[in-house]
Amino acid sequence: MSDSYNKFVADSEKKAFDKVHRATVAFNISRYDAAVVKGKEQYLNLELAKQRGAHIKNKVVTDLAKYLVDFESAFQSHGGKIIWAQDGAEAVSEVLKIAKRQQAKNVVKSKTMVTEEISLNEHLEKAGIESLETDLGEYIVQLAGEKPYHIVTPAMHKSKEQVAELFNEKFGLDATSTPQEITAYVRELLRKKFVNADIGITGANFLVADIGAVCLTENEGNAMMSMSFPKVHIVIAGIEKLIPKLRDLDLFWPLLATYGTGQNITVYNSIVTGPRQEDENDGPEEMYVILLDNNRTEILAHKNQRRALGCIRCGACLNVCPVYKGIGGHAYGTTYSGPIGSVITPWMRGMKEYKHLSFASSLCGSCTEVCPVKINLHELLLYNRNDSVKEGHTTRAEKSVMFAFKTAMGKRRFMDLLSAKNKNKLLKKFFAAGWGPRRELPEVAPKSFKQLWDERREGKK
Prior knowledge:
Elements: H1 3-16, H2 19-39, H3 46-62, H4 64-77, E1 81-85, H5 88-102, E2 106-110, H6 113-117, H7 120-126, E3 130-133, H8 136-143, H9 160-171, H10 179-196, E4 199-202, E5 206-208, E6 213-218, H11 222-228, E7 232-238, E8 242-243, H12 249-261, E9 268-272, E10 286-292, H13 296-300, H14 316-320, H15 322-327, H16 338-349, H17 351-354, H18 356-359, H19 366-370, H20 377-390, H21 396-410, H22 412-415, H23 420-435, H24 449-460
Helix pairs in contact: 2-12, 16-20
């Protein structure tokens, strides 16, 4: 088994039986659930909106090259610069080149889950550049020396008391500080950072192909300031973030808000088409968009799994997943956790190392049911499992057990060779360890259905 698998099992064991952790996550997700129910009320026909969203994203994924070229042409026509990055190393290298030209010492970041994917903060710090997360949740986990726990809510695993303790430790705030007091403190601190920043780095919720626009939606306004105050604005976005037309935002922004936070529409919505123009008073002097592949084309190459590239990163599938709610986001050991992370991570970071994520699912289908762009996530996990076997990522023991099971189940006479007692012995020998020490292994009934049926038929004669 891979090192990632062993760590996943150990971390899952720890988190699943941490009562405080589970209570915190359950409370925060319950508030989300209540908000989303209310948010859905804005739709007269929610199913139709989801179908339209799915159709548009599937169209983009099917013809991704065309939309990428359209976006590049439109964005460059406004004075912006496009950088194509094959992988995380290339993206980091390009950011460092820009920072070196600007002699940058301070960077502010916002809405940048993709930069977690390429570990940009660590690389900037090694280069002697301060990189500060400005979204409150991201800032909290950065202070704690952790990675985001959730796609939308990075600090979902922390209670308000734990956050207060963290700010007491780092800044000397009162250990009983309220969320409002902590927010006010962070707001004051960040204002100075925005003004003095040399570069602002953001991600993108959507890239609009027809007008070459970067679209950001947020509740705090920090992304808006990250790209307005610094002289240079760098956007790092996955190549799958595209939507065809500006008018499509009236569908996708409400869908993302409803399923992400339960709002009708998020508070701040920005559409940026390039650097500051001659007749404009504010904005960056230079603007770059780094279009990141990082094995997204590997997902694209798979006919079934490519649908996962339509994800709009609302986080809804995480919030309904019984596995995610049990083990939490950090146990996955990846940037993207939950069902969507379990589908895309094996292709982005290697099937051999991360195939176990595709098996970390109950296949209950809740993720598919809740997805606002109708991605059949639980089915894609099955495709991943199948592909992992086809690629040979199975142990000799797994092959032997499955061969024996297939042979035994293939013919009735093989199934009847052993008594129920001996079948139970085999189950305990080969499956008890995988079943876990805290669950009782089911036992084979003394009589099979066939035996009971035969007895019933004989009794009627």
